[in-house]
Amino acid sequence: MSGHSHWSTIKRKKGAADAKKGAIFTRLAREITLAAREGGGDPSMNVSLYLAIDRARSSNMPKDSIERAIKRGTGELGGTQIEEALYEAYGPSGIAILIESLTDNRNRASSEIKGVLNKHGGKQAGSGSVAYLFERKGEIKISSQGKTNDEIELIIIDSGAEDYQKAGSDYLIYSKPEELAAVRDALAAAGLACESAELVWQPKTTTALSETDEAKAIKLLEALDELDDVTNVSSNLG
């Protein structure tokens, strides 16, 4: 079974609070616009767009805002150019960090990320020096929903998923990126409602730190995650 990041668990716990921030709609709109620009405006033919719209709906983003974001991506509406960037970094005690960004100002995003890294004991890494420690995966979160562990395991196996992990009363199910939508649909057809479905950077292995160093690392990861231009922060913190 692949390594599971402690940081990803923390992010899920604080997700509800993050959704209250006004910046969440800006992030979601950028994701939708970029997905539509790169893969077209039809979510049935564009998995990235399908997932971005699903996240927007889960956060109660207005329908007209979703439609405008799609149209900006397909060129039907004008608007600021959105750029995607992946930053690689090291945190306290050398933990590996991947920082995903969607921004209308790459210089601003880069400057703010470097500022947070410097403040919290991290440093930016060269291209390729950290990314090889992670794998791109589809991640689906479900709860037990009254079913036994054996019942859920059978459903997961039949869905075509690659792997799963138990996280309290929840299950984190992993798939190939291109099969995320199909696995999610298979789980739903078997009666398991999915709480979330997204593409993630999953660490191949994780690194455990002392309590003091872990606290420093989490403070850095949270500070990065709070930046408006940052859409996701992944780490191999164990």
Describe this structure in words.
Strands 3-1-2-8 form a 4-stranded antiparallel sheet. The protein contains 8 helices and 8 strands, in the order ααααββαββαββαβαβ. Helix 2 crosses helix 4 (63-74). The mean pLDDT is 89. With 238 residues, the chain is an alpha+beta fold. It has helices at 6-18, 23-39, 47-58, 63-74, 106-119, 149-159, 180-189, 211-225, and strands at 83-90, 96-103, 123-124, 134-143, 163-167, 170-175, 194-203, 230-235. It folds into 3 domains: 6-74, Orthogonal Bundle (Arc Repressor Mutant, subunit A); 83-132 and 204-235, YebC, transcriptional regulation domain (Alpha-Beta Plaits, 2-Layer Sandwich); 134-203, YebC, transcriptional regulation domain (Alpha-Beta Plaits), CATH 3.30.70.980. The chain is globular.
Shape: globular
Largest sheet properties? 4 strands, antiparallel
CATH fold label of the largest domain: Alpha-Beta Plaits
Radius of gyration: 18 Å
CATH superfamily assignment of the largest domain? Answer: YebC, transcriptional regulation domain
Number of helices: 8
Low-confidence stretches: none
The portion of residues assigned to helices is 40-55%
Average pLDDT taken over every residue: 89
Strand content: 15-25%
Which short descriptors sum up this protein?
Alpha-Beta Plaits; alpha+beta; 23% strand; 4-stranded antiparallel β-sheet; Arc Repressor Mutant, subunit A; 3 domains; 238 residues; globular; 8 helices
